[in-house]
Design goal:
By secondary structure, this protein is of the alpha+beta class. It has helices at 2-16, 23-38, 42-55, 59-71, 75-88, 92-106, 199-231, 240-283, and strands at residues 110-116, 124-127, 130-132, 140-143, 146-153, 160-166, 169-175, 287-295, 298-306. It is rod-shaped and about 155 Å long.
Length: 307
Protein backbone atom coordinates (compact mmCIF):
# COMPACT_ATOMS: atom_id res chain seq x y z
CA UNK A 1 0.00 0.00 0.00
CA UNK A 2 1.41 3.42 -0.98
CA UNK A 3 0.47 5.03 2.31
CA UNK A 4 2.45 2.60 4.47
CA UNK A 5 5.56 2.87 2.29
CA UNK A 6 5.38 6.65 2.24
CA UNK A 7 5.10 6.83 5.99
CA UNK A 8 8.15 4.62 6.53
CA UNK A 9 10.30 6.69 4.21
CA UNK A 10 9.05 10.00 5.60
CA UNK A 11 9.65 8.89 9.16
CA UNK A 12 13.34 8.58 8.43
CA UNK A 13 13.58 11.74 6.34
CA UNK A 14 11.56 14.00 8.66
CA UNK A 15 13.40 13.24 11.82
CA UNK A 16 16.88 12.93 10.37
CA UNK A 17 16.97 16.75 10.54
CA UNK A 18 15.34 17.16 13.96
CA UNK A 19 17.22 19.56 16.18
CA UNK A 20 16.58 21.67 19.28
CA UNK A 21 15.33 21.05 22.80
CA UNK A 22 12.00 19.56 21.66
CA UNK A 23 13.56 17.20 19.14
CA UNK A 24 13.46 14.12 21.35
CA UNK A 25 9.81 14.58 22.30
CA UNK A 26 8.94 15.42 18.70
CA UNK A 27 10.62 12.20 17.52
CA UNK A 28 8.65 10.08 19.99
CA UNK A 29 5.37 11.75 19.03
CA UNK A 30 6.14 11.33 15.35
CA UNK A 31 6.76 7.58 15.73
CA UNK A 32 3.58 7.17 17.78
CA UNK A 33 1.70 8.95 15.03
CA UNK A 34 3.10 6.53 12.45
CA UNK A 35 1.96 3.53 14.48
CA UNK A 36 -1.49 4.99 15.10
CA UNK A 37 -1.92 5.81 11.42
CA UNK A 38 -1.03 2.25 10.48
CA UNK A 39 -3.57 1.01 13.01
CA UNK A 40 -6.26 3.13 11.37
CA UNK A 41 -6.59 5.51 14.32
CA UNK A 42 -6.50 8.59 12.15
CA UNK A 43 -7.73 11.25 14.59
CA UNK A 44 -5.25 10.17 17.29
CA UNK A 45 -2.42 10.05 14.75
CA UNK A 46 -3.23 13.60 13.60
CA UNK A 47 -2.93 14.86 17.17
CA UNK A 48 0.49 13.23 17.55
CA UNK A 49 1.80 14.70 14.28
CA UNK A 50 0.40 18.12 15.13
CA UNK A 51 2.15 18.21 18.51
CA UNK A 52 5.37 16.87 17.00
CA UNK A 53 5.29 19.65 14.41
CA UNK A 54 4.73 22.26 17.12
CA UNK A 55 7.73 21.05 19.13
CA UNK A 56 10.09 20.59 16.19
CA UNK A 57 8.83 21.73 12.76
CA UNK A 58 9.79 19.41 9.90
CA UNK A 59 8.58 18.94 6.33
CA UNK A 60 8.17 15.20 6.81
CA UNK A 61 5.87 15.75 9.76
CA UNK A 62 3.81 18.20 7.69
CA UNK A 63 3.48 15.59 4.97
CA UNK A 64 2.23 12.95 7.40
CA UNK A 65 -0.14 15.43 9.05
CA UNK A 66 -1.47 16.30 5.59
CA UNK A 67 -2.02 12.59 4.96
CA UNK A 68 -4.09 12.45 8.18
CA UNK A 69 -6.21 15.43 7.19
CA UNK A 70 -6.84 13.93 3.77
CA UNK A 71 -8.01 10.70 5.40
CA UNK A 72 -10.41 12.76 7.55
CA UNK A 73 -11.86 14.36 4.43
CA UNK A 74 -10.39 17.78 5.23
CA UNK A 75 -9.00 18.28 1.77
CA UNK A 76 -8.29 22.02 1.98
CA UNK A 77 -6.28 21.51 5.18
CA UNK A 78 -4.42 18.58 3.62
CA UNK A 79 -3.62 20.55 0.45
CA UNK A 80 -2.25 23.48 2.49
CA UNK A 81 -0.05 21.09 4.54
CA UNK A 82 1.26 19.35 1.42
CA UNK A 83 2.11 22.70 -0.14
CA UNK A 84 3.89 23.87 3.00
CA UNK A 85 5.84 20.61 3.12
CA UNK A 86 6.83 21.04 -0.53
CA UNK A 87 8.08 24.59 0.07
CA UNK A 88 10.04 23.81 3.24
CA UNK A 89 11.44 20.39 2.37
CA UNK A 90 15.23 20.02 2.19
CA UNK A 91 14.96 16.47 0.90
CA UNK A 92 14.08 15.72 -2.70
CA UNK A 93 12.14 12.68 -1.56
CA UNK A 94 9.88 14.75 0.68
CA UNK A 95 9.55 17.56 -1.85
CA UNK A 96 8.50 15.23 -4.66
CA UNK A 97 6.07 13.31 -2.47
CA UNK A 98 4.52 16.55 -1.17
CA UNK A 99 4.14 17.97 -4.68
CA UNK A 100 2.47 14.79 -5.92
CA UNK A 101 0.07 14.64 -3.00
CA UNK A 102 -0.82 18.33 -3.32
CA UNK A 103 -1.51 17.95 -7.02
CA UNK A 104 -3.77 14.94 -6.43
CA UNK A 105 -5.77 16.65 -3.69
CA UNK A 106 -6.12 19.92 -5.60
CA UNK A 107 -8.38 18.26 -8.16
CA UNK A 108 -10.89 17.41 -5.41
CA UNK A 109 -10.90 20.69 -3.49
CA UNK A 110 -14.06 22.52 -2.44
CA UNK A 111 -14.11 26.31 -2.68
CA UNK A 112 -15.96 29.16 -1.04
CA UNK A 113 -16.42 32.49 -2.79
CA UNK A 114 -17.58 35.26 -0.44
CA UNK A 115 -18.88 38.39 -2.13
CA UNK A 116 -19.55 41.53 -0.12
CA UNK A 117 -22.31 43.68 -1.60
CA UNK A 118 -21.65 46.95 0.23
CA UNK A 119 -18.51 46.97 2.42
CA UNK A 120 -18.51 49.34 5.38
CA UNK A 121 -15.56 50.74 7.36
CA UNK A 122 -13.86 48.27 9.72
CA UNK A 123 -15.97 45.40 8.42
CA UNK A 124 -14.75 41.92 9.37
CA UNK A 125 -15.70 38.86 7.33
CA UNK A 126 -15.12 35.40 8.82
CA UNK A 127 -15.70 31.88 7.62
CA UNK A 128 -15.13 29.29 10.30
CA UNK A 129 -12.07 30.45 12.25
CA UNK A 130 -10.58 32.35 9.31
CA UNK A 131 -10.78 36.13 8.84
CA UNK A 132 -11.09 37.18 5.22
CA UNK A 133 -9.28 40.37 4.18
CA UNK A 134 -10.81 42.83 1.72
CA UNK A 135 -8.43 41.73 -1.01
CA UNK A 136 -9.96 38.25 -0.82
CA UNK A 137 -13.55 39.38 -1.31
CA UNK A 138 -14.90 37.52 -4.33
CA UNK A 139 -11.88 35.17 -4.50
CA UNK A 140 -12.31 31.40 -4.45
CA UNK A 141 -10.68 30.07 -1.29
CA UNK A 142 -10.23 26.35 -0.56
CA UNK A 143 -12.25 25.14 2.43
CA UNK A 144 -12.82 21.78 4.05
CA UNK A 145 -16.17 20.24 3.06
CA UNK A 146 -19.01 20.41 5.56
CA UNK A 147 -20.91 23.02 7.54
CA UNK A 148 -19.27 26.46 7.57
CA UNK A 149 -20.40 29.56 9.45
CA UNK A 150 -19.97 32.84 7.57
CA UNK A 151 -20.33 36.13 9.45
CA UNK A 152 -19.93 39.84 8.81
CA UNK A 153 -19.57 42.47 11.52
CA UNK A 154 -18.57 46.10 11.91
CA UNK A 155 -18.76 48.70 14.67
CA UNK A 156 -22.20 50.32 14.72
CA UNK A 157 -23.84 47.58 12.63
CA UNK A 158 -25.88 44.47 13.38
CA UNK A 159 -23.77 41.32 12.92
CA UNK A 160 -24.91 39.14 10.02
CA UNK A 161 -24.41 35.36 10.21
CA UNK A 162 -25.31 32.41 8.03
CA UNK A 163 -24.42 28.73 7.92
CA UNK A 164 -23.74 26.99 4.64
CA UNK A 165 -22.86 23.47 3.60
CA UNK A 166 -19.78 23.26 1.42
CA UNK A 167 -19.55 20.37 -1.02
CA UNK A 168 -17.28 19.66 -3.96
CA UNK A 169 -17.07 22.58 -6.35
CA UNK A 170 -17.50 26.29 -5.59
CA UNK A 171 -20.11 27.68 -3.23
CA UNK A 172 -20.94 31.37 -3.62
CA UNK A 173 -22.03 33.33 -0.56
CA UNK A 174 -23.18 36.94 -0.87
CA UNK A 175 -22.95 39.10 2.23
CA UNK A 176 -25.81 41.64 2.27
CA UNK A 177 -25.44 45.26 3.26
CA UNK A 178 -25.13 45.45 7.02
CA UNK A 179 -27.95 47.12 8.93
CA UNK A 180 -26.95 50.00 11.22
CA UNK A 181 -27.67 49.50 14.88
CA UNK A 182 -30.81 51.41 15.83
CA UNK A 183 -29.93 54.18 18.23
CA UNK A 184 -32.02 54.26 21.35
CA UNK A 185 -34.16 57.41 21.42
CA UNK A 186 -33.18 60.08 23.91
CA UNK A 187 -35.32 60.10 27.03
CA UNK A 188 -38.14 62.65 26.92
CA UNK A 189 -37.50 65.92 28.73
CA UNK A 190 -38.99 66.20 32.20
CA UNK A 191 -42.52 67.59 32.22
CA UNK A 192 -42.81 71.32 32.69
CA UNK A 193 -43.96 72.35 36.15
CA UNK A 194 -47.68 73.04 36.28
CA UNK A 195 -48.71 76.66 35.98
CA UNK A 196 -49.31 78.15 39.40
CA UNK A 197 -53.04 78.69 39.91
CA UNK A 198 -54.44 82.00 41.17
CA UNK A 199 -56.90 80.01 43.26
CA UNK A 200 -54.88 80.26 46.49
CA UNK A 201 -54.66 84.02 46.13
CA UNK A 202 -58.39 84.39 45.42
CA UNK A 203 -59.29 82.14 48.33
CA UNK A 204 -56.86 83.89 50.66
CA UNK A 205 -58.04 87.35 49.63
CA UNK A 206 -61.67 86.30 50.11
CA UNK A 207 -60.76 85.00 53.54
CA UNK A 208 -59.09 88.28 54.48
CA UNK A 209 -62.09 90.28 53.25
CA UNK A 210 -64.59 88.02 55.00
CA UNK A 211 -62.56 88.06 58.18
CA UNK A 212 -62.34 91.86 58.01
CA UNK A 213 -66.09 92.24 57.50
CA UNK A 214 -66.80 89.82 60.33
CA UNK A 215 -64.54 91.70 62.73
CA UNK A 216 -66.01 95.04 61.65
CA UNK A 217 -69.55 93.78 62.21
CA UNK A 218 -68.48 92.54 65.61
CA UNK A 219 -67.26 96.00 66.53
CA UNK A 220 -70.49 97.61 65.27
CA UNK A 221 -72.51 95.04 67.22
CA UNK A 222 -70.57 95.92 70.35
CA UNK A 223 -71.38 99.62 69.75
CA UNK A 224 -75.11 98.88 69.55
CA UNK A 225 -74.85 96.67 72.60
CA UNK A 226 -73.10 99.40 74.59
CA UNK A 227 -75.76 101.94 73.52
CA UNK A 228 -78.59 99.64 74.56
CA UNK A 229 -76.84 98.89 77.81
CA UNK A 230 -76.58 102.62 78.54
CA UNK A 231 -80.27 103.24 77.78
CA UNK A 232 -81.58 100.37 79.81
CA UNK A 233 -79.03 98.87 82.22
CA UNK A 234 -81.67 96.89 84.11
CA UNK A 235 -82.94 95.18 80.92
CA UNK A 236 -86.50 95.65 82.27
CA UNK A 237 -89.28 97.64 80.60
CA UNK A 238 -86.87 99.11 78.05
CA UNK A 239 -88.08 101.53 75.39
CA UNK A 240 -88.58 100.63 71.75
CA UNK A 241 -85.39 102.48 70.90
CA UNK A 242 -83.46 100.39 73.39
CA UNK A 243 -84.98 97.15 72.09
CA UNK A 244 -84.07 98.20 68.56
CA UNK A 245 -80.46 98.62 69.64
CA UNK A 246 -80.55 95.19 71.28
CA UNK A 247 -81.91 93.59 68.11
CA UNK A 248 -79.28 95.26 65.92
CA UNK A 249 -76.55 94.14 68.30
CA UNK A 250 -77.81 90.52 68.25
CA UNK A 251 -78.13 90.41 64.45
CA UNK A 252 -74.70 91.91 63.83
CA UNK A 253 -73.08 89.69 66.48
CA UNK A 254 -74.59 86.57 64.91
CA UNK A 255 -73.39 87.60 61.45
CA UNK A 256 -69.94 88.40 62.82
CA UNK A 257 -69.79 85.03 64.56
CA UNK A 258 -70.44 83.32 61.23
CA UNK A 259 -68.17 85.47 59.06
CA UNK A 260 -65.07 85.50 61.30
CA UNK A 261 -64.46 81.71 61.28
CA UNK A 262 -65.35 81.48 57.59
CA UNK A 263 -62.84 84.20 56.79
CA UNK A 264 -60.22 82.57 58.99
CA UNK A 265 -60.79 79.19 57.34
CA UNK A 266 -60.64 80.70 53.84
CA UNK A 267 -57.42 82.50 54.66
CA UNK A 268 -55.90 79.33 56.12
CA UNK A 269 -57.07 77.34 53.12
CA UNK A 270 -55.48 79.81 50.73
CA UNK A 271 -52.15 79.61 52.55
CA UNK A 272 -52.19 75.79 52.68
CA UNK A 273 -53.22 75.56 49.02
CA UNK A 274 -50.36 77.85 48.03
CA UNK A 275 -47.86 75.77 50.02
CA UNK A 276 -49.09 72.52 48.49
CA UNK A 277 -49.01 74.04 45.03
CA UNK A 278 -45.37 74.97 45.59
CA UNK A 279 -44.69 71.36 46.58
CA UNK A 280 -46.27 70.15 43.34
CA UNK A 281 -43.82 72.20 41.32
CA UNK A 282 -40.97 70.31 42.97
CA UNK A 283 -42.34 66.78 42.96
CA UNK A 284 -45.17 66.82 40.43
CA UNK A 285 -46.66 63.93 42.40
CA UNK A 286 -49.80 65.42 43.94
CA UNK A 287 -52.47 67.81 42.86
CA UNK A 288 -54.82 69.10 45.55
CA UNK A 289 -57.15 71.93 46.30
CA UNK A 290 -59.23 73.01 49.29
CA UNK A 291 -62.98 73.26 49.53
CA UNK A 292 -64.69 75.55 52.03
CA UNK A 293 -68.01 74.33 53.42
CA UNK A 294 -70.40 76.16 55.70
CA UNK A 295 -72.99 74.21 57.67
CA UNK A 296 -75.29 75.10 60.52
CA UNK A 297 -72.69 73.52 62.79
CA UNK A 298 -69.88 75.76 61.54
CA UNK A 299 -67.39 76.23 58.71
CA UNK A 300 -64.99 73.58 57.36
CA UNK A 301 -62.04 73.48 54.97
CA UNK A 302 -61.58 70.12 53.20
CA UNK A 303 -58.91 69.05 50.69
CA UNK A 304 -59.16 66.93 47.62
CA UNK A 305 -56.11 65.52 45.87
CA UNK A 306 -55.07 63.42 42.87
CA UNK A 307 -52.06 61.11 43.06
Amino acid sequence: MRLGGALLVLSFVSNAFAQGGGAAAAEVLFREGIELRRAGQTAEACEKFEESQRLDPAAGTLLNLGDCREAEGKLASAWALFEEARKTAVSDVVREEAAARASAVQERLSFLRIEVKEPVPEQVIRYGEVTLGRAAYGTRVPVDPGEVTVSASAPGYVTWTTQVKVEQGTLRVQVPALVPVTKMPDPPPPPAPPARSVGPWVLGASGVATLGVGLALGLVAKGHYDTAEGLCPSHEECSDETMNEWNKADTLATTSTILVPIGALALTGGVVWWLMQSGEEKSGAVRSWPRVSVTPQGGFVTYRGEF
